Amino acid sequence: MVVVAIDAKAAEQVVSAADAMAIARSNACMGCHAVDRKLVGPSFQQVAEKYKGQPQASVQLEKKVKNGGAGVWGSIPMPSHPRMNDADIKTVVAWVLAGAPGK
Fold this sequence. Notes:
Elements: E1 3-5, E2 14-16, H1 17-26, H2 44-51, H3 57-67, H4 86-97
Antiparallel strand pairs: 1-2
Helix pairs in contact: 1-4, 3-4
């Protein structure tokens, strides 16, 4: 089991990689994203690298998952996920920003 600890700004959230991956799969994230290679959208590792060191990364990505959007990674839009609960979004975003370990 891989556990990811996130910094204090993210409320010292501890994320199980297995839990995060299960949430990502059950919410169709893996239809467009992979851990280590681009599919329709960027890989989770590419997302982690792009947002590395940005203090507002968690907040930005949580909004992007919930509301969708386009333009950051090209013209293909990311669909919104309004039915995904906030706790699950936080779990997946924390895992992605940690580099999506535990593939």
